[in-house]
Amino acid sequence: MMDFTARIAALVALGEHLQGEDEYLQAVMHRTAHHNPWFTKENQTLAISAIAQKMLNQDELNTWLRKYHVPEPVDPQVVGLVMAGNIPLVGFHDVLCVFVAGHKAQIKLSDKDPYLLPYLLKLLERIDPRTANYFQLVEQLADFTAVIATGSNNSARYFETYFKKYPHIIRRNRNGVGVLTGTETPQDLHLLGQDVFRFFGLGCRNVAKVYVPQGYDFRPLLEALHAYRELVLHAKYKHNFDYNYALLILNKVKHHANGCILMTENESLTSRIGMLHFEYYTDIAQLLEELAQRQEEIQCVVAQPGLLPIPTLTFGQTQEPNLWDYPDGVDTLAFLIQLSTLN
Asked: How many alpha carbons lie under 13 Å from residue 265 in its C-beta half-sphere?
């Protein structure tokens, strides 16, 4: 087995490798894009780059781990991981946390993303053969002691029932939201487009809804988002955009459109592909109450710095989470450290 220092060293070496040239990784990405057209090579590259720079960087790891005492587990536990498949390598952080804690990950891959993670695990094994003892890819979880499962709200209800007797973290649907005031610069709104469009809006950190003040002028926002119009060249995105556009017209739903995004007034925090919901607010106090009531549905909030007295991200940052930006706000590493005390 490996001690804590060796595990961190292997992760840092993997990060360094991912920032270099790897022809075989390019082939894996090509295969992945063919298997799942939503996972374009550009989106896979973005995901891998974010992992290498934000999760496998020595300084980032040191900053993250400074607040923890990570004991070497006397009896490493087997942690079952049910992976999501909405964006490339979306479950990598869970895999990393299990490894850092010194436990063993039993991984059920999503059928939407079956190639990238296995290759990264092979790279780790090449860096240090002992890492092979920490990972197992399975078709069905078995003989595990704890579970981290991510899925839709419907699958989460199933997970809650099926895994209720085990220590577990169950994740449901969440979305990012944006808060606008009308004083944003064109650059702010352009960066918001990254929060909306990156990974085609399929990530739980993507902005699916914006809150705007009464009388908001949508023209600058629509103009800024039009810079991402090349998305409609992607066949699956265009199909969804055209379908949703037709529904709006047929049902005579009021909307704003700019050729690559459809904006409708809607209370839901979850929007369809090619759509962005909006809702008006009257004042910040009322808005804060709304956000507090719906915090279980919200993954992150983007706004101008200092606008809100709650944690927010600046525009363009939602898909670049730090190691300490835990999904659903549940501290995954603390959960796994507690497992080290189990007999």
From this structure: 11
Q: Which domains does the chain have, with CATH numbers?
A: 4-170+327-339 (3.40.605.10), 175-302 (3.40.309.10)
Q: Is the pLDDT of residue 14 over 80?
A: yes
Q: Which amino acid is at 66?
A: R
Provide the token pair at 69: 């005492």
d(CA 97, CA 115): 20
Task: Give the CA radius of gyration of the chain.
Answer: 21
Cα end-to-end distance, the chain, whole Å: 19
pLDDT for position 343: 55
Phi, psi of 110 (to 5 degrees): -75, 140
Region 176-193 average pLDDT: 98
**Distance from chain centroid for Cα 313:** 14
Mean pLDDT of the 27-56 span: 97
CA pair distance 150, 168, nearest whole angstrom: 11
Give the closest residue to 201 by CA, choosing from 135, 261, 118: 261
Residue type, 87: I
Query: What is the amino acid identity at position 176?
Result: G
**Bridge partners for 281 per DSSP:** 213
User: For residue 300, which of 289, 286, 288, 313 has the smallest C-alpha distance?
Assistant: 313
